């Protein structure tokens, strides 16, 4: 048994304190123009992202949502993969589920027939989206 003193100043029993309670926004390079609220998928080059699309299975692997627009290829855009993406919605009804759309972007309805069903998240407020990515893994009917 060690004779080292117990350091009560670095441990609080029964309490969990979050150091950063906000979402992690990762800056990622774009391989094409990205719009605010666009779901993104890995791009053609390592470390890049491009617009996700539900009508192409390979492009339906969503890794996050852009929190701003970026039209310059090679520049970076902030991406939220989990948690609150502030200001990406307009006039949303809280509690509404948002899906990846057939040709990109998000919407409150399922994508067109033959497209992959990917839940992007839920409207938290009229302007904020709680990102919780979920690929259902089947095609819309």
Question: What would a concise description of this structure say?
Answer:
The chain is mostly beta strands. The protein has no helices and 10 strands.
SSE arrangement:
Elements: E1 25-30, E2 39-42, E3 48-51, E4 64-66, E5 76-80, E6 82-85, E7 97-100, E8 106-107, E9 116-123, E10 129-139
Parallel strand pairs: 1-3
Antiparallel strand pairs: 1-5, 2-3, 2-4, 4-5, 6-10, 7-8, 7-9, 9-10
What report would you give on this structure?
This protein is globular. Helices cover 0% and strands 36% of the residues. It has one domain. The protein is mainly β.
Using brief descriptors, characterize the structure shown.
141 residues; mainly beta
Mean pLDDT: 88
- Strand count: 10
Principal-axes geometry comes out as globular
Strand content: 35-45%
The helix content is under 10%
Stretches where pLDDT falls below 50 for ≥5 residues?
A: 4-18
Q: What is the distance, rounded to the nearest whole angstrom, between the alpha carbons of the first and last residues?
A: 65 Å
SS field, number of helical segments: 0
Number of individual domains: 1
Rg is 19 Å
Query: What is the H/E order?
Result: EEEEEEEEEE
Strands side by side in the biggest sheet: 1-3-2-4-5
Oligomer: single chain
Structural class: mainly beta
